[in-house]
Amino acid sequence: MNVAAIRCKNCGDLIYSRARHDFCWCSCGTVAIDGGNSGGNSDAISVTGERKYIDGPFEFKIDTSSRGLYQDWNCETDKYGRILGEDTPRRRKAIAKRKLLE
Ligand SMILES: [Zn+2]
Known about the structure:
By secondary structure, the chain is an alpha+beta fold. It has one domain (2-101). 22% of the residues lie in helices and 27% in strands. It has 2 helices and 7 strands, in the order E-E-E-E-E-E-H-E-H. The chain has helices at 66-74, 89-101, and strands spanning 2-8, 14-16, 24-25, 32-34, 46-48, 54-61, 82-83. A 4-stranded antiparallel sheet has the order 6-1-2-7, with no helix packed on it. 32% of the residues are buried.
């Protein structure tokens, strides 16, 4: 199925919401998405974070169903929802900065 996804320009994570109340942050905490997946319809999602750090939203194809996504969220399996960005200096810096703030 298709989901509406965004990419964080700081850490490179691709994130999407698995269920209506799945509020998903990227690894560096710059951007978040929620509102469910609704087959890739970006009108249904809500995005948190500064526009300049966000790529998307765009449609992204994943190999499970809406029910599979819901269960993944509900059972905290967390196989879906976030695809980690490539390990780049920018990503490491963004994640290190987040850890300092916590
Ligand atoms: Zn990020």
